[in-house]
Amino acid sequence: MALDSKIPKGPLADKWTNHKNNINLVNPANKRLIDVIVVGTGLAGGSAAATLAELGYNVKAFCFQDSPRRAHSIAAQGGINAAKNYQGDGDSTYRLFYDTVKGGDYRSREANVYRLAEVSANIIDQCVAQGVPFAREYGGLLDNRSFGGVLVSRTFYAAGQTGQQLLLGAYSALNRQIGRGKVKMYNRHEMLDVVVVDGKARGIIARNLVTGEIERHSAHAVVLGTGGYGNVFFLSTNAMGSNVTAAWKAHKRGAYFANPCYTQIHPTCIPVSGDHQSKLTLMSESLRNDGRIWVPKHIKDVEAIRAGKLKPTDLAEEDRDYYLERRYPAFGNLVPRDVASRAAKERCDAGYGVNATGEAVYLDFASAIKRYGKEQAHIKGLDENDAALVKQLGQDVVRTKYGNLFQMYEKIVDQNPYETPMMIYPAVHYTMGGIWVDYNLQTTVPGLYCIGEANFSDHGANRLGASALMQGLADGYFVLPYTIGDYLAHDIRTGPISTDSKEFDEAEKSVRENIEHLINNNGTHSVDHFHKKLGKIMWNKCGMARNEQGLKEAITEIAELRAEFWKDVKVPGTNDEFNEELAKALRVADFLELGELFAKDALLREESAGGHFREEYQTEEGEAKRRKEFQYVAAWEYKGEPKDAVLHKEDLVYENIEVKERSYK
């Protein structure tokens, strides 16, 4: 199958407007005749389900959580980008577009990214109308802060809980449609297969996670908004339940999987404390606005700190290495995530890590507290030289901006970050790869759409901070509701889709066989045993730095681990009850296939770009080294075993941006 991205012709700034003006529409009366399934109810899926129902479609929405408001979008902290230029600092649609393509290391599709920047401003208006309590300045205008990889302030935020507040906005819109009867909500249901009839996606097979019942659900189109696959690493900042199953089942039914090796390592996470851990905690990138990142300059000081003989606060300024400010003077602590992560790894690998494991650097707010304190003292006409007063006033400002994040850190680490620097280290966070989609957000399976983090479309090889929420809501509120009509216009006389067909029979049979195998296997090791093993292979050989030998080893080891899993996994309980181990086993089975394709994709991409860092391809200064021959999207077609997957290339053409060496110096 040839990849057709369906990018509209014409000038970049006019593509989306002209496309909307020329695609097919479904009139309001006919929308009542059409059913749409939406899988996932985070920001992308929740906003899509609410908007499609508002338009008049009949929507079935599915989530594996006990409520849509528990989707992992709730965990996003720092903010959401939009090109409104409220600060008057030179921001624009083009600037947001440019920063996003550059931040993704020139590995994203121009047309999609420009559209994202174009509709970003609408998202803020929509969310304000829903009552999202964005932070405001003294005069009442919405406040903005800066994030990594940009030179302007365009990030709207609600303290350190922006994702939660945005999700509550989408959830309220979704609840309204549930109340109207336009959305039928299926909580505690997990999609386990896509049903394709006559070449079109016509429904799903789902498992009721409470009763174990296998259900058939039909529709004229299926939309996946199921998030990313970071938990293939076992340890990540993702919620424990986050998985790749829906996307992977779609892949096995014909949807190409694009750029699986593009995974984001977030630089600002609480370091791993031991093998007992099952999840990592993210500290918002917004902290890098005011926090300064450093390690000691001298090994003797590192050793003293590790031994507990020296406190970081005792170290003089001249004995600290603010390495991001040193290496990247133009952007300093606000370099993109991939750059900041590799820089932290480099310092720790060189022996300057400050915790017991040697895998931590400091994020220090002492300078910000002093700066804000002096400013507040000046405003209030108080003594700016009173150190105790300045410290108190400064802490009050920081508490207002980041208080819940500081509280979370103290609860986890049992250290007061107002008094001593936070310790942070990079961890797996977001996946830029995902299901391949065209300009309409349709996959290579007609009638199957994919939105938000589950698709590959907007971030290239590295996502800029605060752009995940932007993409999810852009797709759900302002893109998919237009583009899906172009496809559904041909279904207004189709009538209801029957679930009594050989395609539904076959899909359900496949699901049942997998479940029965796992339940009856009676092996000797738990699901977590295999998941942890997979995670260690992925982190050690497909993590922050990759090389040819390690990737080849990973491919072999993952294939062997997968074979062992199917022979030796033990899943207690039965399939007709609430059985979280069974649900977990089904998800890990898919991770074991994805992991191998991930490593294969990374092996074939013989360059470094964004979050994909091949040790063989770096500049003399240790920066990522792109190669022009890899200026394409790698879209993989399923052919059985991951080793047999077939590569299809979508060439990336840049007509509005000059592709050059990425520099943040």
TrEMBL record:
Domain FAD-dependent oxidoreductase 2 FAD-binding: 35-469
Predominant location: membrane
Top class in the EC scheme: oxidoreductase
GO molecular function, one term: flavin adenine dinucleotide binding
Top-level taxonomic group: Bacteria
Cofactors: FAD
Organism: Hanstruepera neustonica
Domain Fumarate reductase/succinate dehydrogenase flavoprotein-like C-terminal positions: 531-664
Record-linked NCBIfam families: PRK07573.1, sdhA_Bsu
Catalytic activity from the UniProt record: a quinone + succinate = fumarate + a quinol
Active site (record annotation): 337
Cellular component per GO, a single term: plasma membrane
Gene name of the record: sdhA
One GO-annotated biological process of the protein: anaerobic respiration
Similarity annotation: Belongs to the FAD-dependent oxidoreductase 2 family. FRD/SDH subfamily.
Gene3D superfamilies: FAD/NAD(P)-binding domain, Fumarate reductase/succinate dehydrogenase flavoprotein-like, C-terminal domain, Succinate dehydrogenase/fumarate reductase flavoprotein, catalytic domain
Keywords per UniProt: Cell membrane, Electron transport, FAD, Flavoprotein, Membrane, Oxidoreductase, Transport
Pfam families assigned: FAD_binding_2 (PF00890), Succ_DH_flav_C (PF02910)
SUPFAM superfamilies: FAD/NAD(P)-binding domain, Succinate dehydrogenase/fumarate reductase flavoprotein C-terminal domain, Succinate dehydrogenase/fumarate reductase flavoprotein, catalytic domain
Subcellular location(s) of the protein: Cell membrane
Topological type in the membrane: Peripheral membrane protein
EC number: 1.3.5.1
Name of the protein described by the UniProt record: succinate dehydrogenase
